[in-house]
Amino acid sequence: MIHVLHICSDYSQQKLYRELILELSKKGIKQTVYVPVRSVLEIGKYDITSIENVKVNFSYILSFKHRLFYHLKTSSVFADIEKQIDLNSVDIVHAHFLFSDGGVAYKIKTKYSIPYIVAIRNTDVNVFFKYMLHLRAFGREIIKASKKIVFITPAYQSLLVERYVPEKFSKKVVDVSIVPNGLSPLWLEDAIISCVQTLVPLKLLYVGDFSRNKNVIQLLKVIKNFSQRMDVELTLAGGGGNDHESVLNLLKREEFGFAKYIGRVEGIPAMKQLYSQHHIFIMISKLETFGLVYLEAMSQGLPVVHTAGQGIDGYFKNSSFAIPVNPNSERDVINAIESILNNYEIASREARKASKSFLWDEIANSYLKIYNL
User: What residues does 98 pair with on adjacent strands?
Assistant: First the structure.
């Protein structure tokens, strides 16, 4: 039985890692998950140690100084892993971020000759490679020493090769696997038939936080202008983030009367109901690692408008149901909405069909092939 060591610094922040590990456990994989945390509140979150052949090691070893000194952090995590885990029993390491986790995997390989695969995500490309120039060379070494590179989205493969990876590394980066985040099968079970019988008024939906990165203020301004040519309603679900108060203040103004804020919606059944009451999902973030919410919307038959070069861009080229836009271009966003409306029934049907290829079972099978290379 293959033994995989997951190094996942983001495990306690997002449920998606738990979903992947659960699916892999069903396929007979022994897994140890190492989670370094900065707060005792993170310990035990999404713990699945009760599952056979899965052990989750939460370790409260990180502090503010580790944010400032990258190599100190990787050395601390590596030393802690050596204390907690029998590395001689590990067959392969799965680092879920290039820098945060891959630097530790690199140290493990150097000392124990254990191969590793590493995923490249939003912060790797848009923070570490972009701003931390002193770490670029080490990032390339992590890539060079890896068994396989996994991109969560094709957009980051293109961005990395075009901007940050010299030609001598290009073959290593091009010879990769594109493995997305997965979708729970609950989204495709007991589908709710849309309650919306007409496209007038057009019902748009946004689900997410109200951080500046999510660009909600820009979205409101674009739809305000679009509302002058078509009867439209925009629902904002979620909230929180550094633009939360600014968004709520805009919504108090009469000119934004087309929009309403409904707060957080919890649970898949409630979210399905919400999607069934709308026509199009729209989220024009500045940066987006993947954007699982796009797939959730698609699973319920909603075409989506998303950011070009980020998130799911590259998975649905030239489709009628997933339209990439420049998030700062009003014209782009309006054209995308109108394009969807031109073939709405087809776009809705194709969106739901396309979402089925992102089920966690399929994602786990992709990783099995990678582990066993």
Answer: none
Residues 6+ apart with CB under 8 A from 163: 129, 130
Condensed to tens digits (0 to 9), the pLDDT of residues 299-320 reads: 999 999 999 988 888 889 889 9
The residue type at 12: S
Residues 164-173, buried b or exposed e (16+ Cβ, 10 A)?
bbeeebeebb
Q: Is 63 exposed, middle or buried (0-12, 13-18, 19+ CB in 10 A)?
A: exposed
3-state helix, strand, coil in the chain (%, to 5): 45, 20, 35
3-179 is a CATH 3.90.228.20 domain:
no
DSSP string, 29-74: -EEEEEEEESSGGGTTTT--TTSTTEEEEEEE---HHHHH-HHHHH
Give the global pTM: 0.81
- Classify domain 185-357 at the CATH class level: alpha beta
